[in-house]
Amino acid sequence: MVYKLLKNMGMSVDLTDLNKIEGVTDSFIYSKWGALLAPQLQYEDARIEHFGREVALCFAILGKIRQEVDFIELIYEDRHIIVQISQNFFILVICEDTADTTLIKLTLNVINDEVRGDKDIQKSLRKSPEKRDLLAEAQEESELQELFKKMKITT
Known about the structure:
Elements: H1 2-8, H2 16-19, E1 24-31, E2 36-38, H3 46-64, E3 71-75, E4 79-85, E5 89-96, H4 101-117, H5 119-126, H6 134-138, H7 142-151
Antiparallel strand pairs: 1-2, 1-5, 3-4, 4-5
């Protein structure tokens, strides 16, 4: 929904340069609440929604413990997930383990600056209807309750 608003304002978020980097499989922009902003998908994909929700939850936990992080990099056997976190959105990149992560991070910085600097996009993100308390929702999940207790996180 927010992505459509961004397109209607004459500013679409272009992930082409990022996706052209050798080894990049895909990239996405999410609101800080985990709502997919770009690209606009023609189908539903539970994995993409799950990525957004999980990273948004990490984002919320880091905020709660007052830990500032610019990048999160998850390394798997054959894939990497690189996430650049900004104040009210994040960009997630899925890439092969052979991809040039330095070039990916440089490109992420450029895209991040474009999105942060666009007043219309920022206004839309602040007014986003997807705002919700992710930590309160997550505390209802039994598998996360123990983690929250260990980290002394309360909502």
